[in-house]
Structure of Response regulator transcription factor:
Amino acid sequence: MIVAEDSVLLREGLVRLLQEAGFTVAGQAGTAEEALSRAARCRPDVALMDIRMPPTHTDEGVRAALALRESLPDTGVLLLSQYVETGNAVRVMAREPRGFGYLLKNRVADIGELTDAVKRVGAGETVVDPEVVARLMGRPRVAGGPDVLTPREREVLALMAEGRSNEAISERLYISAKTTETHVRNVFTKLGLEPCPEDHRRVLAVLAHLQAS
């Protein structure tokens, strides 16, 4: 994998944590352009990339992620952000959520959560930071939005948006598989979303709905 982060201290810290967790870090980068160059040479399984990078510190990381996915579609991308940014990052994920993740930097302190996100993105899953999901769900809703859901259905929706399978949702909420299936079906019905057997497409549907509302 490669790590792209303009803060030298944070980048070196990330590299050390990932290496200690058993990952092979094949390259580091301080700019989006450098990240693309190193990715082209290393062809990593996962690219860990800051959203805001030089020179403008706005959306260079997001644009680089798009370019990387176009040139290396099998490389998973895990975006890191200091703050909840629900615009471009979510739109990028909505284009092709498979093997894409969005994590807030404060999660880096939890090595278990960080390594889990890297592994899931590398395996082609979608990872969305729970705080990002909460922010999206907390926006003023239009008719037919998540406000029509019960509290339990909102919990299920949030876990779906994190890329969790029905089995994982059942374990997290301590409910039966049948009950989870019922809640998922109700969520899709109430939001007017067609269910799909592929988890990453469920995330796509949920994120697209939340962002557009």
